[in-house]
UniProtKB/TrEMBL annotation, chain A:
This is 3-isopropylmalate dehydratase small subunit. It comes from Marivirga sericea. Belongs to the LeuD family. LeuD type 1 subfamily. InterPro entries: 3-IsopropMal_deHydase_ssu, Aconitase/3IPM_dehydase_swvl, AconitaseA/IPMdHydase_ssu_swvl, IPMI_Swivel, LeuD. The gene is leuD. Coiled coil: none annotated.
Automatic annotation (TrEMBL), chain B:
GO terms for molecular function: 3-isopropylmalate dehydratase activity; 4 iron, 4 sulfur cluster binding; metal ion binding. Transmembrane segments: none annotated. Its EC number is 4.2.1.33. Keywords: 4Fe-4S, Amino-acid biosynthesis, Branched-chain amino acid biosynthesis, Iron, Iron-sulfur, Leucine biosynthesis, Lyase, Metal-binding. Catalyzes the isomerization between 2-isopropylmalate and 3-isopropylmalate, via the formation of 2-isopropylmaleate. Belongs to the aconitase/IPM isomerase family. LeuC type 1 subfamily. It comes from Marivirga sericea. The keyword Protein transport does not apply. This is 3-isopropylmalate dehydratase large subunit. It catalyses: (2R,3S)-3-isopropylmalate = (2S)-2-isopropylmalate. The keyword Transferase does not apply. Heterodimer of LeuC and LeuD.
Amino acid sequence: MEKFNTLNSQAVLLPYEDVDTDQIIPARFLKSVSREGFGENLFRDWRYFEDGSPNPEFVLNQAGNKGDVLVAGRNFGCGSSREHAAWALVDYGFKAVVSSFFADIFKNNALNNGLLPVQVTDDFLAQVFQILKNRPEAKLQIDLNEQEISLVGSSLTESFEINSYKKYCLQNGFDDIDFLLNKKNEIEAYEQSLA
Amino acid sequence: MSAKTLFDKIWDKHVVHSVEDGPQVLYIDKHFIHEVTSPQAFSGLKARGIPVFRPEQTVATADHNVPTENQHLPIKDALSRHQVETLIKNCNDFGVELYGLGHPYQGIVHVIGPELGITQPGMTIVCGDSHTSTHGAFGNIAFGIGTSEVEQVLATQCVLQKKPKTLKIQVDGELNPGVVSKDIVLHIISKLTAAGGTGHFIEFCGSTIEKLSMEARMTICNMSIEMGARGGLIAPDETTFEYLKSRPFVPKGEKWDRKVAEWKSLKSDDDAQFDLEYYFNAEEIEPMITYGTNPGMGIGITKDIPAPNGKTTSGLEKSLKYMDLEGGKQLLGHHVDYVFIGSCTNSRIEDLRLVADLVKGKKKADHVQAMIVPGSRQVEKQARAEGLDKILEAAGFELRQPGCSACLGMNEDKVPKGKYCVSTSNRNFEGRQGQGARTLLASPLTAAASALSGKISDVRELMK
């Protein structure tokens, strides 16, 4: 997993609520047995027409709308537990997703893949949408150490929550399996206490 | 000692370690896997050179990506076949029990766990599938996880999780005729929205819930995730024990008696505090149907579709455009092209009996394609033994072989673009049943009634 510290990037705006994991990566693309290559089908049915040509109205197909940060409406990532949704976002190149509300399983999946879910207030989100709509070149700065997100060149700034364990994992590129494998003795002791 | 909810009792008993200002290491009793969300987890174990820690606590089946016709033949789609073969190889290499295609126990993972008695009260259960919440009907903590977490469980029989908050949903009163458990849960989600339970774990209770069969309870717990909750449980009672008693994987004899005595203590303390509480009156619930593109967009079947108010950002306008439906109008009488009866929500024997009862001696509308996909080989066998297959086929309903099928359209069972499908599944997301498909979620009764008339119908009209 890649380390995450600070990020300074333009953002891609997806101003819809309840973006579900079936939109992020439709089920027919879940047939792979590896973690790679899902980025090309990210938001497939919004991004492409049925004949495979790009839909010019979709944000990822518009020049100038690029960046490492996706900003989306509330309840992002609801629905299926498919981690393929997080893999697709990472494979496409996103490093953080900003929303005012994340579905639980998606949030865990994102964190387990070094993709930072930044939960902001509805008010902050609305302002980011408003400003970036007019100034798409503006950059968002996300500082994990300070747990702060700000719009560069403005006074718009907000702090965000992340538990210190997950923060430590992201900063160091550690994953949960390393942590759990180190707890083997405790796990075995737990099993014995039940017997 | 302070009063505890049932959720707290089971959770706390399974905590191996708590990380300061972080998640907890939660011990997992049973782990289910399937072909779609497990291959990358096994690859992870191989890359680290480690075995499955407790292979006897994991059970595998093939369900998401399997055909529902000619299951004895090789799978035609090369990618699907490779995924199913990878599951077989991984289970062989790592010593995991597999109920694959052709096995008499094969079926949708959330149907087979309960019907085999692998699912039991008081357990912690996970699976790389969000509808793992289904198993909570037996009074356990069951929730869906991502593939990295599947790998955690395979490697250590534990998963790192932050403890959710608790949410009580109490339903009291008598259900009206024509109203079944699917209507209860669609009603609840329509009130709480698709995000109303996020961050929480639900306990369903109340006199209405207590009177439901185990299969009806499973339908409710199944859709906990559709209001954003990680899972939902129901305290075990005599209905639970009676259902489990004769199942192949439950303890027998004296061990059974001891287990039941232990399970009887599994309930929330009277004065236990929940973080959130909601109360519903069963008498106010009518047959439900969804009109939009998330399961919270549901209405009573005689009600009007909500009209966008112009300033909304909730996606109502976008949803209605996708569905090609008009706000302010009724759904009743709207044209239907497909009917799908199946999925981990409604594919059990009681669902098939309800449908067979209703359509017996009748015929589906000519223009409707009606597909029934049983949840498991056991359900299929039982349906045939009871002669339901004959009744259904005479009414023009096609009884297929078990799998997830048109719930998510990973296999060939898809709804074509622009077509309307009344479906007993759990999600009406854009494209869920096929690119451009329009899904209307409803109960098996409403689905069957709509297949007969060829339009969205109020089943109560047929029951008069």
